Every structure is written in structure tokens, then in C-alpha cells.
Amino acid sequence: MKTKFKISRLIIAGIRKNYITTFHEGVNIIYGDSDTGKSTILELINYTLGSKTIDLADEINTSCHYVSSEFVINDKLYTFKRDIFNKNNPIEVYPCSFEDCSNFYPDKFNPTSIPLNNGLEYVSDFLLDLLNFPKLKIKTSPSKANSNFQKVSFRNIFKYCYLDQDSVGSKNLLENNNWVKSSILKETFKYITNTLDSSISEISIEIANLINSKDILSKEHSVISKFFQESNVKNINEIDHEINVIDENIDVLTDEVNNINTSMEANSKNYLELKSYYDELNINTKRLDIETKELSAKIENYSRLLNGYDNDIDKISSVLLAQTRIGEISKEVSPCPICDSSITIEIEKDNFSIVPSTHLEKEISSLKSRKRDIKSLIQLSKDEHKSKYSEMIENQNLLIKVRTMIDEENSNMVTPFLTQRDALLKELNRSEERRNNLVSTLKLRNQLNKIIERIAQHESQLIYLNDTLDELKSKAPDINVIFSEMKNYMHSYLENINIKNRKNISISEKTFLPIFRGHDYSTITSGGLRTILSIGYYLSLMNLSIKMNINYPNFIMIDTVGKYLGKTGTYQITQPIDNEVDEGLTDPEKYKNIYAEILNITELAKSKDISCQIIIVDNDIPDHIKKCENDFVVEHFSTIGVVKSKIGLIDDL
After folding, report:
1. Do 46 and 162 contact (CB within 8 A), yes or no?
2. Beta-sheet strands, E only, within 511-588
3. Higher pLDDT among residues 345 and 511, named by residue
4. Which residue among 12, 37, 186, 626 is least enclosed by CB atoms within 10 Å?
């Protein structure tokens, strides 16, 4: 039985909207301009499957809440949700589509194997169960007799599925420069290909554990089912039907309440006339209030001016009175002590400012005239103020009467509506409360179904493991057989790509990586050739999985197929390295042939009715792919607004 694993949708839950990428069986291509979020899609998929870290662009950080991936695993749909801001928060898994998650309680798993003391399982173990892969232990130091053991990790298996941008064509493919990590990955390779020395005994133990676990689940199911029967809890179909009926009733009640709220806006002729008169009267009252305040301020200013005139008249009158009483100042004549002449001293010129009395009398007359004018203005303002104030008081009294009449009119019209609306709101609240209770019951029922699905999953795992065990017992695969199959595929793959001088091709027994022309993968100097070999190596694993029963999910993600290669279209190598020219790797045909080989492997799987999925990210695609773009391209990003493209993953900035 072949494992089925594919992603159907990536959903980035955003602040303004959700950003969704939809995938299908076979080849899925994401291409376009640099820095538009292409690689982010693969990183987010990897992140929902338990990757430890993720580097997010600013637009993701400012536009999104969390990420979800919908996976179809052995014909069952699951939604994996993960917080993108806190990598240690549990991954939530729902046995449904993204839209139906609210109907289920999620299973929660730790994203990494680091102990968090929260009682949750590691998501890797859960994924192995879903894939029907045995949970065996591998040696951390295979060359040592006393080597420690650790559980097989889905994360290490997935490294044989995800060829990220840094790994494509890298000399350090699959950590081959790190002895510790490389040793674990080579043991993981043996696990994938069922060539572990302890596979038969470990699978036998795993089968026994699964049987015990299945028995425990069956007992749980029996107890919960009995409780539901004794409590007369409805089944899922009945609950769904009742929720739908309640939803329809809630919609009707909501519409009726809205209609009543609209009708409560009184529309009788008498009410409208009173309301119009009230509004007009209110405006006039406010205007009169403003005008009376302005007149009060004017009267106060006039009164201050009048007091000022009175003070000025009193001061000038005092000066005139002083002049009449003091009399005229005489001139003093004294003999000069030096000569016989006389000296006249005019004291008033040096010490006093003498204003003629006629000028002062004219000024008093002018002030009295202005005083009379001010008194007249004050009186006129007082009369106007009294009139307007009286009118304002009258309007205020009238406003009170009209307001009372409006309230009475409104009460007569609205009271029946209020009674009806209150009754509808009570019914609406009861319906919503009933719906909430039903949703809770539905979630409980779904929890029971999850137990049933886990029992079925265990049964499926038992079938798979028993088949694997029988196959191992009858003909345990030798790792050299595996290497031979991969070598044969690599030879055919390189021939189809048209790589010249194809000789001494094999898989290294030391590194488990390709050997070409007798050179280990990591010693090959041509970056373009390493790109072709690294992609071929991953495709050889998928080819192996199609032909043999191995622990591989038939799922590959490749970031930047054209790395170090000559391509067609906008993105071309402008300064090819000499050895790339010698190999002919800048020839666009080789780039085209890689895509052809990727399509061929998916067609092979399809011909054998085996599920497989390959997701490719690249800056451009060959012309023959563009001609049938709708069949393969799931996202096209362009910063210059090309037809049928988005500006980027976050397309609403």
C-alpha cells in the first residue's frame, strides 16, 4: 500500500484578508520576480510541518496572524495551524478543511522535540502515524558498537523531500560536511529504504504497540458511545440538520428585528409635522440665545464707555475750577547782579502745561454729546435685549410643550414595536444559545469520530506494517540494490538532460550521495552540474518509491531549479563561469530537459495510479511550460503587473 501525501492549500490568515495558494496532484510551479514571496510559500509549508524556525519578510509580519496548510494524507483531509510569531506555541491539527475548523476541537502537538513540559506529543510522531510509517529507532553513531539510539524523525525524512534554495547545487547537500548530522541522515536514508539492520525486529515491536494502542482506543470508544446512548445525544447528521434549521431561523429573526428597527423610526404625518416644527423652533431658540448674549456684551461695553466719558468730564471740570481759583500766574522780575538790566522769570513755561479754558470747555461739550449718544445706544440695546429675551423664554416654553407632544406621539407608535422586538430578541437569544450548545455537542461527537478515525488509522498502519514485515522477511532489500536502482535512474536522467561524458555514475557508500565521473558530489566544482545532480538525486528517491515499498511520502519541493544554469526568458546568466561553458550547462535546452524529467516522473506515478506531488519555485520557466501554463502554474508574481499575475504573495499592499 503506497502512502499518499499532498498539500491542497496554503492559507495565510491575514489582517485584511486571507492569502491562499491552491495546489494539485503532480507538478505545481511558482515563478516570477525576485523578492515577491515565492520561497516564502515553501518555507511556510515546511514551517507548518514542524520546522524549527522561519524568516519572514516585513509584509508577512505586518499583514498576517498565523499560517495554515491543508494536507491530504492517505485520503484524509487535515488542517495544520501554526503561530508565525511564536515558534514554541503548539501546532493545532484539525481533521477537516480550514473553513470547518470551528466545528472541531484541535489536537495540539509540540513543533519540536525540545521538551516543553506541557504534556503534548511531538508533531513528528503524529505525522509518522498518519503516513503509516513505523516509529523505529536509529543509531546516532552507526560505526560504534555502543551507539545511542534515537527515534526516527519526520523532520529528517522531510530533508529528503525539501531541496531549499541554499541546498540546490550546494556542496553541503544533506549536511554532508557535518559528520554527526550526516550520520543521522544516512541512518534516516536506510529507514526510508527499509535497509536498517534492525528493521524486522523494530517493526514487530511497532506492530505489537499498535495493537495495544488500538485496543485502548476501542475501549475509549465503547465507553463514550455508551455515555452518548444513555444521554440520548443526537448523531452528527441530526445535529448538523438542527444547526442548519436554527441558522435559518436566526436569519429570519434577525431580518424581522432589523425591519422593526426600521419601522420604529416614526413616520406619521402628525409626528413629522411636530418634529419639523420642533427642529425649526429649536434653531430659532438657539439663535435668540446667541443674540441676547451678544446684546448683553454690547450693553456692558457701552456702559463702560459711558463711565469713561463721565470720568473725563469730571477731570476736565476740575481743571477749569482750579484755573478760576488759582488765578493768573504773574511774571517775576529781578535785577541782574552783574549789569543794570532786569531778568524776567516765566515759571509757568518751565513747570506747567497751560491749556486755555476755551479748549477745555469745548472738550467737555464734545464729551457730553458723545455721552448722550451712548445713552441712546444703551437704551436701544436694552429694549432689543428685552424683546429677544422674552421671545427666547417663550420659545423655550413652547419647546417643552412640543417635546412632550412628540414623546406622546412617538410612544403611541413605538410601544407596540418595542413589545414585538423584545419578543423577537428573546427568541433570537434562545436560538443562539441553543446553537452554541449544539456546536459544543457536535464537537464532542467529532471527538468520538476522531477516535474512530484513529482506530481506522491504526488498522491501516497494521496492514501497512504487516505487508512491510512480510516483504522484509521474504526479501529484505539490500542497500546495494537500492544504490543500484538509484544509479540506473541517475544515468537515464543525465542522458535525457543531455549531459556529456556520462561515466562512473553511482551512489557513494560513504556519503549516500551521487558520484559522477568518479568524483564525489561535494568535490564537483561545477555549480550547474551539482544543481542537476542534486535535483536528480531527489527525483531518484521518488522513482524508487514508485517502484518499491519504502517509507517515502512521494512529495518534493525544489527552490530555484535554474540555479547556476542557463535559461530562456528574462532571467539569464550574463557571465557564465568557464567550466559551466565547458559542460554546456548554459545551454537553455538542459534547463528545459530538467523540467521534462520532473514531468516524466509525475507521469510515471500517474500511470501506476500512485499519488505524487512536486512543487517548484523558480524565477522563470521554459517556453514549453509557458504554453501550457494553466496546467502547472499555481502562482505567478510580477512587480510590473503582467497579465494573470499578482504583485507578490501579499498582493494588497
Report:
1. yes
2. 514-516, 519-520, 555-559
3. 511
4. 626
Q: What angle do CA 604, 610, 612 make, to 5 degrees?
A: 80
Please state, in angstroms and rounded to a whole number, the distance separating the CA atoms of residues 174 and 578. Answer: 27
Among 155, 47, 33, 61, which Cα is nearest to 617's? 33
Q: Going by DSSP bridges, is the β-strand pair 64-73/76-83 parallel, antiparallel, or unpaired?
A: antiparallel
Look at the block and give the residue holding cell 480550514. Answer: 98
Q: Which residue in this structure is represented by grid cell 445525544? A: 233
Closest CA to 154 of 195, 183, 123, 199: 123
Write out the three cell numbers for 38: 515565492
- Rounded Cα gap, residues 291 and 302, in angstroms: 16
**Confidence at 1, pLDDT banded by 50, 70, 90:** low
Q: Is the pLDDT of residue 579 over 70?
A: no
- Which positions ≥6 away from 155 have C-beta within 8 Å? 49, 50, 51, 124
Task: Tell me the pairing of strands 91-94 and 107-110.
Answer: antiparallel
Helices and strands in the chain, H and E counts: 16, 19
Mean pLDDT of 128-148: 77
- Cα-flanking dihedrals φ and ψ of residue 154, to 5°? -60, -35
On whether the CB atoms of residues 169 and 563 are closer than 8 A, the answer is: yes
First and final C-alpha spacing in the chain: 46
Q: For the beta carbon of residue 557, count every other beta carbon within 10 angstroms.
A: 23
Residue 170: phi and psi, rounded to 5, are -80, 145
Q: Which residue has the cell 484524509?
A: 76
Q: Using one digit for the tens of pLDDT, what is the confidence trace for 361-376?
A: 888 888 888 888 888 9
70 with 9: CB under 8 angstroms? Answer: yes
Is residue 526 within 8 A of residue 512, CB to CB? The reply is: no
Q: Rounded to an integer, what distance in angstroms lies between the CA atom of residue 217 and that of residue 203?
A: 21
Closest CA to 104 of 89, 94, 113, 118: 94
